[in-house]
Amino acid sequence: AQKVTQAQTEISVVEKEDVTLDCVYETRDTTYYLFWYKQPPSGELVFLIRRNSFDEQNEISGRYSWNFQKSTSSFNFTITASQVVDSAVYFCALYSGTYKYIFGTGTRLKVLA
Amino acid sequence: SQTIHQWPATLVQPVGSPLSLECTVEGTSNPNLYWYRQAAGRGLQLLFYSVGIGQISSEVPQNLSASRPQDRQFILSSKKLLLSDSGFYLCAWRSWRTEYNEQFFGPGTRLTVL
């Protein structure tokens, strides 16, 4: 069975702190894709990044970075020098070609000024 | 560029009334289309998906139905709403091309059933 676990329900940090959001996935497929989405208070899910199972390179985009490790089935997301605008719910998702996406339950990040 | 529209943005309906939510995608052809529901403070629940005109796969056997009358139009319906149908409804699309698997979401419809 496929599963995505985001064990952190809610995280609070003070502005400028670094924060890491954890994502652990389960799948028996050898080809799969992992995603991170941001859901700000307005509600729309915003696509942040896609990673396929054959590319374990970490990625950095501005203050955002992602660490993909197949050995631990994890795809963690780090925000460096967090800002109030980063406050949102963040979802990790898994796709392996069956048209269906498996979403985690989300992590609510609160960045306090 | 591609855009996805949903309407209405908010809706308050009495129990037992019908429902019709519409989603349209622009700037792409033959998209895969999805309806999700998100209860307050919860994760995403897949309701329906469609890989082509007239083709609907249902994940939730409840009082909801979906239709895809045109390539880029996806409609979510109900004949009689229940209190439990309240939630945030999100439409999403993804490209039919297998190298692009990310979904893109619409702005959502917030439904309150009273």
Structure description:
The complex is a heterodimer of chains A (113) and B (114). By secondary structure, chain A is mostly beta strands. Helices cover 0% and strands 53% of the residues of chain A. Chain A has no helices and twelve strands. In chain A, strand 5 and strand 6 form a beta hairpin. The relative contact order of chain A is 0.34. The model of chain A has no long low-confidence stretch (mean pLDDT 94). With 114 residues, chain B is mainly beta. Chain B contains no helices and eleven strands. The relative contact order of chain B is 0.33. The chains are: A mainly beta (113), B mainly beta (114). Chains A and B meet through strand 5, strand 6 and strand 10 of A and strand 5, strand 9 and strand 10 of B.
Radius of gyration of chain B: 14 Å
Please state the structural category of chain B: mainly beta
Rounded to the nearest angstrom, the radius of gyration of chain A is 14 Å
Number of helical stretches of at least 4 residues of chain B: 0
Distance N to C terminus of chain A: 41 Å
Number of helical regions of chain A: 0
Determine the strand fraction of chain B and express it as a percent band. Answer: over 45%
Structural class of chain A: mainly beta
Helix content of chain A: under 10%
How many strand segments of chain A?
A: 12
Oligomeric state of the chains present here: heterodimer
Low-confidence stretches of chain A: none
Shape, per Cα inertia axes of chain B: globular
- Secondary-structure element order of chain B, as H and E? EEEEEEEEEEE
Biggest interface and residues each: A-B, 21 and 23 residues
- Terminal CA distance of chain B reads 38 Å
Q: On the 0-100 scale, what is the average pLDDT of chain A?
A: 94
